[in-house]
C-alpha cells in the first residue's frame, strides 16, 4: 500500500513536471513569435532608418510582451513545480525510515569467516585485485585457495566472448568424469556451438567431418539433437530456410556461458550466487518487516534484541528459501536437530519435544491434537530437513 501511494505521488509529480515544461515551451514560443513578427515589420519598412517607424514597432512589441507577461508566467510555473517536488521527498521520508540501524542486532560474527566470504565474493565476480587486497590487509592467506579456480573460469569466459571454445573444451575434458556425474551436457553443447559456427561460415564437407568426429559419440544418447544438427548440413549457404534455425540463435552462447559458470562453481563447492550476495538480497527483502518490528517493540518499551526468536515471520521469496522450515503447531517452536519434526501414523507432524510431553513416556499413547488417532512416541518417525 505504501508503494502504491508513493507511485501515485510520483506520477503526479511527473505529470505536473511535463505540464509545466509544455506550458513553459508555449510561452517561449509565443515570445519568439512576437519578436519574429516585429523583425519582419522592421525589414518591410521602406526607410529602415526612420526612428518613428522603429519606435512604433518596438513599442507595439513591448506592449504585447507585457500583456503576455512571460517572466511572471515562467516564475509561477517554476514555483508550482518546486512545491510539488518538495512534497515528494517529505513523503519518501515519511514512508521509509532512513535509519536502518534500528533493525540491527548485536551478533557475534566470526570475522575470519566473514573475511573469507567477502574475498570469495570478489573472486567470484572477477574482482581479483580487490580480493587480493582484502586478503593481504586482513591476513587471510588461506582464502586465496579459491582464487585460481575463479581465475581459470574468467579466462574461459573471456575466450567465450570472442567465440573461442578452446579453453572451455580443455576444462571440460579435464573434468569430464565429474561433469558426467552431475548430469552435465556441457561437452555436447560446446560441440553444438562449434558445429553451428562451421555451418554458418564453412563448407558442407567441413561440417560433415566435424559431425562425424565430435557429434557422433553423442548420437546414441541424444539422437533427436544429433539428427537436427546433421540436417543443418543440407542447408549450408541457405540457412534462412533451415527448419532448425533456432539452433543458430545467439542465445545459445549466453546459455552456455551461464552453464559454464554454474558447473565451475559446483565443482569447487561454491554456489552460483555468492553467500554475500544472497545474504544482502535476503536482508533487503526482510528489512521492512524488521524495521516495523523494531518500531513496535520500541513503542511498547521492549528490547527486541534480547529475543531469541522473532515473534513474526519474515517472508522471503522462493529464490531465497533453501531449506525446509517446520514450526511445531503445539509448542510453536521451530524444528531443529535437537528438536526434530516427527511424523505420526496419522501423517500429522509435531516436534519431538511436544510428542514426548504428550506421551509422558515412550510407552504411553496419546491423542493427536488434530484428529482422533492415538499413537505412542515409538510409532512416530523422525523427518530430516
TrEMBL record:
* Compartment annotation: Cytoplasm
Task: Give the main location.
Answer: cytoplasm
Matching PROSITE patterns: CTLH, LISH, ZF_RING_2, ZF_RING_GID
- Pfam families, A to Z: CTLH, zf-RING_UBOX
Q: Which UniProt keywords apply?
A: Cytoplasm, Metal-binding, Zinc, Zinc-finger
According to its UniProt entry, one GO biological process term is: proteasome-mediated ubiquitin-dependent protein catabolic process
- The protein depicted here goes by the name RING-Gid-type domain-containing protein
